[in-house]
Amino acid sequence: MKCPHCGKELAISKKDSSYGLCHTCKKRYKLPSQQQTYSNIPPKHIREKSERTIRENYRNMLEIEDEEDVSETKDKVILTIMIILFLLIIAVAAYIFLFFK
Ligand SMILES: [Zn+2]
Questions:
Q1: Residues lining ligand 1 (ion), CB within 5 A?
Q2: What is the whole-number distance in angstroms between the Cα of residue 2 and the centre of ligand 1?
Q3: For residue 45, which phi and psi values (nearest 5 degrees)?
Q4: Are residues 53 and 27 in the same domain?
Q5: How far is the CA of 87 from the centre of ligand 1 (A)?
Q6: How far is the CA of 38 from the centre of ligand 1 (A)?
Q7: What are the TM regions of this chain, as residue ranges (predicted)?
Q8: For 3, which of 22, 82, 83, 91 could close a Cys bridge (C-beta 3.0–4.6 Å)?
């Protein structure tokens, strides 16, 4: 970044690398965040994108689990109905058998 006052290249402050120093004007300027020297931290938009992807994947995972829960509950209900019907049929068959005996 260049000094907005005299146009000379700013020296990055040794105390705080987010500041640029102009030795000609003896002034300190806040540098734009992408010019910070923290090279190990990815730019903000990339970080936000990956965070969003992780969040979406997590949400998808939860939704899949929800669907599995619903189908499992349905299966249990169907199984319960089948058992009740089966018992009813046996009861009716036994009743008919006893009635006509
Ligand atoms: Zn300057």
A1: 3, 5-6, 22, 24-25
A2: 8
A3: -65, -30
A4: no
A5: 92
A6: 24
A7: 77-100
A8: 22
The verdict on 56 and 101 lying in the same domain is yes
Distance 42 CA to ligand 1 centre (A): 30
How many structural domains does the chain have?
A: 2
13 Cα to the center of ligand 1, angstroms: 14
Query: 7 is in which domain, residue-wise?
Result: 1-41
Segment 81-89 shows an average pLDDT of 96
Q: What is the pLDDT of residues 12-64, one digit of tens each?
A: 999 888 899 999 999 999 888 754 455 666 777 878 888 889 888 888 877 76
